[in-house]
Amino acid sequence: MDLIEVAIKVVREGPICDSCLGRQFAKLSTGLTNKERGMAVKTVLSMMSVQNIENLKIPDKEKCWICNGLFDKLEYWANKAVEEIKDHDYETFLVGTNVTGLLSENEEIIWTESQTQWAEPAKSELNREVGKLISQKTLKEVDFSRPDLVLILDLEDDLVKIKSNSLFIYGRYRKLIRGIPQTRLFCKECGGSGCEVCEGTGKRYKESVEELLIWAALDRFRGSNASLHGAGREDIDALMLGNGRPFVLEIKDPILRNVDLASLKNEINEENFGKLEVLGLKYVNKSTVKTIKTIKADKVYRVKISLDKNVEREKLEGALINLKGVIKQKTPNRVIKRRADLIRVRKVHDTELKSLEGDTAVIEIDCEGGLYIKELMTGDDGRTNPNLSDLLDTNVKVNELDVTNVQIDEGHII
């Protein structure tokens, strides 16, 4: 079926606007709007009508039966969208549409009756044309991959809905006190709804690194929520010292996107003085989250241990030398309920005895990420081999465990 035959079938269905007519031939040419295509088709059909070919008449004044005048309201929708986003910080946007049931039904009818093979959906044209107008009015750019804002034209309810995509901030944190988990942990009894056990908080612990970071950030960015994505995690009773643990803070539904990060860093550090410190905040892309979550970072730990009996310095130093190399660990007893029972193979790169006083020692361990340090010391009932307890032939107790360095190349992250 050729273009003229399809066009005749289309216009015989009822009065139709230039945009809806041209849209039935959207895939046939480039460089034209659907409105321009429709005008051209109507011109040709009008010339044919003058010659009385098939007695064809081209309706011109009545409302389009397909869109019911929707494409006469492009300016209306663009202005409505611009008004809705006037308080948002953004550089890029994308328009989407929730069409009415009637418009979808009318399109199905015209495609079936005309048998056109060149049409595009009405919402594709609406997204494009309203997007052009918004761009002209705001001087902002359309972005099809990762826009700051997605604007949904809800035709049924006459609304413009805004989805503000998350923004991401990279940095490092130093945890300076013990007893704080990295992320929010919900109460085991109520699952977060609040009960007597958690005193109505819904949480297992009063605060977390995540919460200490996000409150100032949410206030600055006017976001709805936030999540912390860390490069690994330290035990709740461990400090995170040295250059800090890399993290990405995800701010969800932000209204503002251009916050001064140096000022935000100072605010977080002042509010959490002596408890938490953040360093080197930078804006990053979403892809950094995946990098942070999957990166294999070597770590340096400082461990304070006590021994069941006094051990000579030479014997302890010799045992530490024998810890260097390959370590085989079954999943520790303390986490077996929530992690698969596997044998993990990790390496200890270096060890150093920092101090020894009686039955108490401080040790530094440089190792691969994922090595369970407490079990490296105690042996965990034989589940970690080799281990310091066996090498010394005495029980070892871990009193304090601190992370002093997370070794990553930031050039590969940000």
> Assembly state here?
single chain
Which of globular, elongated, flat, extended, rod-shaped describes the shape?
A: elongated
> How would you spell out the order of helices and strands?
HHHHEHHEEEEHEEHEHEHEEEHEHE
Query: Rg to the nearest angstrom?
Result: 33 Å
Taken together, the total number of domains comes to 3
CATH topology of the largest domain: THUMP fold
Largest sheet: 10 strands, mixed
Helix content: 25-40%
Mean pLDDT: 92
Question: How is this structure best described in words?
Answer:
- The protein is of the alpha+beta class.
- It folds into 3 domains: 3-164, THUMP fold, CATH 3.30.2300.10; 167-295, Alpha-Beta Plaits, CATH 3.30.70; 298-408, 2-Layer Sandwich (Alpha-Beta Plaits), CATH 3.30.70.3190.
- Helix content is 31%, strand content 27%.
- The chain has helices at 3-12, 18-23, 34-50, 74-84, 101-114, 122-138, 209-221, 261-271, 287-294, 313-323, 373-378, 388-392, and strands spanning 92-98, 141-142, 149-154, 159-164, 167-175, 225-230, 239-252, 276-284, 298-307, 325-330, 343-357, 360-367, 384-385, 396-407.
- The strands form 2 sheets. Strands 5, 6, 7, 8, 9, 10, 11, 12, 13 and 14 form a 10-stranded mixed beta sheet that branches. Strands 2-1-3-4 form a 4-stranded mixed beta sheet.
- Helix 4 packs across helix 6.
- The longest helix has 17 residues, at 34-50.
- The model has no long low-confidence stretch (mean pLDDT 92).
